[in-house]
Amino acid sequence: MENVVIAGSGPAGLTAAIYTARANLNPLVLEGPAPGGQLTVSYEVENYPGFVEPVSGAELMDRFLKQAERFGTRMSYASVQKAVREGDHIRLETDDGVIETETLIIATGAEARRLPIATEPAFYGKGVSGCATCDGAFYRDQDVLVVGGGNTAMEDAMFLTRFARRVTIVHRRDYFRAAPIEIDKCRKNPKIDWLIPWVLETITGDARGVRGAVLKHADTGETREVECQGIFVAIGHDPKTTPFQGLVPLDDEGFIVAVEGSTCTSTPGVFACGDVRDRRYKQAVLAAGHGCMAALDVEQYLGQRE
Ligand SMILES: Cc1cc2nc3c(=O)[nH]c(=O)nc-3n(C[C@H](O)[C@H](O)[C@H](O)COP(=O)(O)OP(=O)(O)OC[C@H]3O[C@@H](n4cnc5c(N)ncnc54)[C@H](O)[C@@H]3O)c2cc1C
Is 278 in the pocket of ligand 1 (CB under 6 A)? Predict the structure, then answer.
């Protein structure tokens, strides 16, 4: 029987590991399909506190890992396939066998939805981004597209006008899911253009990154090429919660519902931290902060059971 199993090895999971390992709880981290988490695909992180110079996401996460291992964290490449509460503990079915644990910290993240076009993967992280807060500052005086029609797309477009020369919102429908007030703010901003209802078909560029995009009118089929250096995709996130369905409550988008102000879920012994329970902010420093909270919540829970 494990004391604490942490599902996920991004900033949330590894911070939880650092804290629980230092508290002598002997944590086991299941790294899952993306060791180090989302940040490992980011070439430059400029907003993680404590790093004056930009640091690559891969290096940052390697430092998290080494710090967790320094205090004795055990790492496994396994992924959770199914988690159920059995009696007073949790049973995890993984691709490397069954694990039983007194507590489970779920830190499996939420993946930004990708554009379903063949040219996108080659430019992801080289001009195509799923995070305006993270990457907007790299596009000073450049032309960028924002793809999406919800509140996030409008907020991202407004935010990007602080840096970019022109921001064009591309949306495949001629109506928006975004709140009218958010759309109004964008309409009043002279730096924002609109391409609706247009669909992004192809990204063009070279080894240096994105140089433009080919768009197709959703009704007429007309195509046009636009120049741009950045494409921000704001079409939602998919929280990685499938293995935990039935174990913990999920909201209408699949994010884990935790008790306000803590990482406790309504299931005893199960805690959730990072992007997997964060509908709004999705930043590494917050995920790390949540990881710390989860570790302290676990300590308290186990202390009360002794
Ligand atoms: C391109 C890019 C650039 C970014 N840049 C910045 C930035 O500059 N600054 C910033 O603050 N944030 C940035 N972010 C956001 C930041 O990466 C996330 O907010 C952060 O990684 C969330 O941490 P997390 O630990 O909650 O989840 P993640 O980092 O998503 O980690 C999830 C972990 O869960 C594991 N996992 C998934 N399913 C399972 C399973 N079934 N069993 C076990 N493990 C599983 C995965 O393998 C992974 O290790 C960026 C994101 C992207 C994609």
Answer: no
